[in-house]
Write a structure and sequence with these properties.
Blueprint lengths: L14 E2 L14 E6 L4 H6 L5 H4 L3 E4 L5 H9 L13 H16 L15 H9 L2 E6 L16 E4 L6 H7 L8 E7 L22 H9 L15 H28 L4 E6 L5 E2 L5 E2 L6 H4 E9 L1 H4 L1
Parallel strand pairs: 2-6, 2-7, 4-5, 4-6
Antiparallel strand pairs: 1-5, 3-10, 7-10, 8-9
């Protein structure tokens, strides 16, 4: 995908953020956190990605939450999906994870206390380390009105939920200031359609914001409106669409690398997984199943070795 032709324009109302502050030259490297919303670990493996393994090994990790908003709150606290290490106290894992951010960011001073009382990466990086903070989000639960948007200089909700290419069209990392960038994209989210795909006959499944919107308009969603559970054949077809989405996202990575200065750090993960009939469930959210918590995780430095 190239250019923004044919894509909906981003309205001013979809952008939130304080005026950029150019502070005195700060140490630190650029970090991009790319969240492939709803992507299962095994769906990514089934897609046989070509570019992502060049960044680093694809790890099987575990999210702290089963849906988008709380999972992103953890991510922006600096608490990334974990390895479920046996015999390790949570406090030890969290401490090690926060120390690892010092290496990712190139900030030796970054520690638990340096995040400040908010315990929130965007705010700490912006206020204490002079970072430019920006977010490009796709799912409605991350809209600019939610508390998750705090601490960002620039916060954009995209007009489509499933178009990483459109985000890459407008993404810029400052050349004279370190930056932290959150990207959330929904190609791997139901209904697992890529930009330009024709709509299909899949039923519309409202998320929490859709339900809230109906209630606010005086039209709560009755149980009778819930669609019938998908057949095994349909569930398999939907999973294959998520696998196809994962391959399409992998194909876009070179465009992201081209936007990132040398020695930038890229983290690629998912906020949660998805169920395609396991245990009698579909989707994610109020579903206590390990496949909703199982996510891929890859991180590494970006440089000429990836662009060659």
């Amino acid at each position: 995908m190239s250019g923004a032709a044919g894509r909906p324009k981003i309205s001013a109302a979809s952008i939130r953020g304080a005026s950029p502050r150019i502070l005195p030259a700060a140490a630190g490297r650029h970090v991009v956190l790319l969240v492939l919303d709803s992507l299962r670990w095994d769906s990514l493996c089934a897609a046989a990605p070509v570019h992502l393994p060049r960044l680093g090994p694809i790890e099987r990790r575990w999210s702290y939450a089963t849906w988008t908003a709380p999972a992103h709150y953890n991510l922006l606290m600096g608490i990334l999906p974990h390895k479920a290490p046996p015999g390790v106290h949570g406090v030890a894992w969290h401490g090690a994870e926060l120390r690892a951010w010092g290496e990712r960011l190139g900030l030796d001073a970054l520690a638990v206390l340096s995040l400040g009382p908010a315990l929130y990466l965007p705010s700490a990086l912006r206020e204490r380390f002079g970072y430019r903070t920006q977010a490009f989000v796709s799912l409605p639960s991350l809209n600019p009105a939610v508390p998750l948007a705090v601490g960002f200089d620039h916060y954009v909700q995209m007009p489509q939920h499933n178009d990483l290419g459109a985000i890459l069209d407008i993404l810029e990392l400052p050349r004279h200031q370190p930056s932290f960038t959150l990207i959330n994209t929904g190609e791997a989210h139901y209904p697992y359609l890529l930009p330009g795909d024709p709509p299909d006959d899949a039923p519309r499944l409202a998320g929490v914001h859709g339900v809230f919107g109906r209630v606010a308009a005086g039209a709560p969603v009755p149980v009778a409106e819930a669609p019938a559970f998908f057949s095994p054949a349909r569930l398999d077809a939907l999973r294959q669409r998520q696998v196809r989405a994962a391959a399409a996202l992998d194909a876009l990575l070179p465009r992201l690398w081209a936007k990132m200065p040398d020695d930038s750090h890229l983290i690629v993960t998912s906020d949660h997984g998805e169920l395609f009939g396991e245990g009698g469930y579909f989707g994610h959210g109020p579903v206590p199943h390990e496949k909703v918590l199982e996510v891929p995780f890859v991180e590494g430095r970006v440089g000429p070795h990836l662009r060659g």
